[in-house]
Specification:
Length: 78
């Protein structure tokens, strides 16, 4: 459900949450456990960082259309 809300792959969500210690294993299953102190510590880390500011109007991006080959839309096979 989290990956559907954020449009981030399930594997990336699990890896990120696991790296912060927010994934617990109990009775043959995984669940998200994000204690308030852990979340607050992560938020303080993020606020301390300086981020690059991007002007979204200057971004020229179009998703690749599967099966369509063109100058800006190359077809890759895996």
């Amino acid at each position: 459900m989290f990956s559907a809300i954020t449009s981030i792959s399930t594997e990336n969500c699990m890896e990120t949450l696991s790296s912060y210690g927010f994934i617990k294993y109990w009775r043959q299953g995984h669940f998200v456990c994000a204690p308030r102190k852990g979340v607050e510590a992560r938020l303080q880390e993020l606020h301390a960082k300086k981020f690059l500011i991007i002007n979204p109007q200057l971004i020229n991006w179009q998703p690749r259309v599967k099966g369509k080959v063109g100058k800006n839309n190359k077809m890759f096979t895996f």
